[in-house]
Amino acid sequence: MSAVLLAAVERPPSRLGQHLLLTALVLLGAALCLAAMAWGWRRRARRQEPGLPPLPVAPTDPGPPLMEPMDGVYVGTVGAGGWQDRIVARGLGRRAGGDLVITAAGADLAGLWIPRDALRSARVDDALAGKVMPGAGLLVIGWDLGGVPPGGAGGVPPGGAGGVPPGGAGGVPPGGAGSVPLESGFRGRASGYAEALAVIGGLLPTRQQEAS
After folding, report:
1. d(Cα 154, Cα 117) in Å, to the nearest integer?
2. What is the CATH number assigned to the segment(s) 70-211?
3. To 10 degrees, the CA torsion angle through 22, 23, 27, 28?
4. d(CA 23, CA 26)
5. What is the pLDDT of residues 62-110, one digit of tens each?
6. Concatenated DSSP letters of the chain
7. What's the pTM value of the predicted model, to 2 decimals?
8. Structural domain boundaries in the chain
């Protein structure tokens, strides 16, 4: 009997309540962080949307692929502010898995349709939309959203090696009436990047091919 009483006295108090409280605080902190991120995302989208024309709609029959479709992930889209100038309005900020399909009518990046007349550059890079892609990097396609700049279809004069003219964050100065130069990234099979660059280069206006 005395042994039982001694064991009861020496048993440490239960810490279950403390553990539950700590778990609740951690979950609450995570929820607040997610809510703040979602609020910031929506605020950025509302700020950007008035300056962005509607996204182009893919044709019913874009024609046969000019190369084998490449499986991968649409990473995101940026404006003139550089690789961290992420565009989230009109659904451009959401990552999506799918294929890169290039036809004579344009390029489809996992559901984001870029008409041929809007294409203006293509390159391989290792960072876009605030994300660094180690290893093979990703394919970055420059294009114009809305309107056709003066001087030819899709003909925004390249501002450098990447074909992006200088400008402020949230959208570059339009290259023409209602157009906004953007860059969209697609991460796929690295061994297929060279072919994709060659095919897209063949779709660009002659003036841009010479400039690149």
Report:
1. 5
2. 2.30.29
3. -30
4. 5
5. 999 999 999 999 999 998 767 778 888 888 988 999 999 999 999 999 9
6. -HHHHHHHHHSPPP-HHHHHHHHHHHHHHHHHHHHHHHHHHHHHHHHHGGGSPPPP---S---SBSS--EEEEEEEEE-TT-TT-EE-GGGTTS-EEEEEEEETTEEEETTEEEEGGGEEEEEEESEETTEE--TT-EEEEEEEESS--TTSTT-PPP-STT------TTSPPPSSTT-EEEEEEEE--GGGHHHHHHHHHHHS-HHHHHH-
7. 0.66
8. 70-211
Q: Measured between alpha carbons, how far is 141 from 120 in angstroms, rounded to an integer?
A: 8
- Per-residue confidence at 26, pLDDT binned at 50, 70, 90? low
pLDDT tens track for 143-196: 999 854 433 333 333 333 333 333 333 333 334 446 899 999 999 999 999 999
Q: What is the distance between the alpha carbons of residues 137 and 135, in angstroms, rounded to a whole number?
A: 6
Residue type, 196: A
Best CA proximity match to 141, nearest among 112, 121, 117: 121
Q: Do you know the residue count of the chain?
A: 212
